[in-house]
């Protein structure tokens, strides 16, 4: 199981005092551990746990549909960012939106363990799918905020014949936006610079997109803990988490880098998707250059 570990991230952010670019400090190599990567067509099934507004759901749905969009979108595009995953050994995953389950009545309560997240994820199809549990702002998940903002892993299906990939991301807006929704909220550590304006006007959900992008990239490049990662398998640095903190050129600890700004709304973004949506996507490691790639 791989998680987005933010205490280590903030430590990396602020132990450095220089303004050297984060992505150029040291040569970065993610070792390939000879395991299976997700390749080919996969559906992304969404389990909405708790109350999300239709607009909040549309922000994330549009993001999923932007990953492999056949629609022409203005540059820099979400699909260009996702194409970096094609450069990993064994090639690309084509992700399309699959089933959606609404669990607005909190069927397992408002405090969940990871085992319950896996149980929720298993309620959708498990063949050639990534089952993503998205928890609302009033749902506490074990480890949420203390050491992670999202996670991904694999589990055995009901038939016990094959594994399926799952992921979880939570809305942090009322629990820990300074950890899990940065740079749209002031960080809990380090320089208290003004936060950026969220591209879709929702600090929690725009933060979820950053973390969802992180776990999806980790899922396809390290689905079973033997793909691409650096460090221990129990707490790996993966395709995106190895590049944490960089969103544009010139990024350094505490500064996300040069990003684009919408002239009308003042919102910051670095990627464009379907239906006119704008997003902020984190840097992703490019195995061909052994460096973190940003869209701007």
TrEMBL record:
Record flagged with keyword Signal: yes
InterPro entries named in the record: EXORDIUM-like
Residues annotated as signal peptide: 1-20
Main location: secreted
A Pfam family matched in the record: Phi_1
Top-level taxonomic group: Eukaryota
GO cellular component, one term: apoplast
Subcellular location: Secreted, Extracellular space, Apoplast
Alphabetical UniProt keywords: Apoplast, Secreted, Signal
Membership in a protein family: Belongs to the EXORDIUM family.
Protein name: Exordium-like protein
Source species: Thalictrum thalictroides
Lineage: Eukaryota, Viridiplantae, Streptophyta, Embryophyta, Tracheophyta
């Amino acid at each position: 199981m791989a998680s987005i570990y933010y205490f280590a991230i903030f430590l990396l952010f602020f132990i450095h005092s220089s303004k050297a670019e984060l992505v150029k400090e040291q040569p970065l190599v993610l070792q390939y551990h000879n395991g299976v990567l997700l390749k080919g067509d996969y559906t992304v099934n969404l389990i909405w746990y708790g109350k999300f507004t239709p607009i909040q759901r549309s922000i994330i749905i549009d993001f999923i549909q932007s990953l492999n969009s056949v629609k022409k979108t203005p540059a820099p595009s979400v699909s260009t960012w996702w194409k970096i995953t094609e450069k990993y050994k064994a090639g690309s995953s084509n992700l399309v939106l699959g089933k959606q389950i609404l669990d607005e009545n909190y069927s397992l309560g408002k405090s969940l363990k990871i085992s319950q997240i896996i149980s929720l994820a298993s309620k959708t199809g498990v063949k050639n799918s990534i089952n993503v549990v998205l928890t609302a702002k009033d749902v506490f998940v074990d480890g949420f905020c203390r050491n992670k903002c999202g996670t991904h892993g694999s589990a055995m299906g009901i038939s016990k014949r094959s594994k399926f990939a799952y992921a979880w991301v939570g809305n942090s807006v009322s629990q820990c936006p300074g950890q899990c929704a940065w740079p749209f909220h002031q960080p809990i550590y380090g320089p208290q610079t003004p936060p950026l304006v969220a591209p879709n006007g929702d600090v929690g959900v725009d933060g979820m997109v950053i973390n969802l992008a992180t776990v999806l990239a980790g899922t396809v490049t390290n689905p079973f803990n033997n793909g691409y990662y650096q460090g221990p398998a129990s707490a790996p640095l993966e395709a995106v988490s190895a590049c944490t903190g960089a969103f544009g050129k010139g990024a350094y600890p505490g500064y996300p880098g040069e990003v684009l700004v919408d002239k009308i709304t003042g919102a910051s973004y670095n990627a464009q998707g379907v239906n006119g949506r704008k997003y902020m996507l984190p840097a992703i490691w490019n195995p061909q250059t052994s460096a973190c790639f940003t869209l701007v």
